[in-house]
Here is the input.
Amino acid sequence: MSLINKEISDFTVQAYQNGDFRTVTKADALGHWSLFFFYPADFTFVCPTELEELAENYDAFKAEGCEVYSVSCDTHFVHKAWHDESERVGKVAYPMLADPAHVLARDFEVLIEEDGLAERGAFIVDPEGRIQVYEVTAGGIGRNAKELLRLVQAAKFVAEHGDQVCPAKWQPGAETLKPSLDLVGQL
Here is the structure.
């Protein structure tokens, strides 16, 4: 079953961000675009490379009106310890959501039940709390923050211009398509 247009469920989790613990709820994710970025666990191998790349592109996400939420099934205390110990993760300024009760991992359907860990899943959620884009990759495959940013930009464009769609490799400012009978089979 597809998760496109699924409204995310209510949630309340703890987060570590900028030296503090805080509570994050569904209400915090509404009214702007969000990227929920699930990864298996803190203190692992591929995960710090991904979180670092997101950190390096965080300003670009913020410029698009998109908050980044990294999510693992670790506690907020473990997030703080990892942030304090890892040079790569120490660059993270976005909220690191703790999901030890697996509330988010279950709702986004990325929980590996037998391991108590999350799959690598990236979910772009619109300001109304509905999933517009998602991808889930195998544990050994890292993701590309710039491609995720492009997908945020494309999702925003389509939401703002309902009569236009973004073709493959679309970038902001590039030509879009207006679906019509005339285009069927022509491109």
User: Anything to note?
Assistant: The two ends are 29 Å apart (CA to CA).
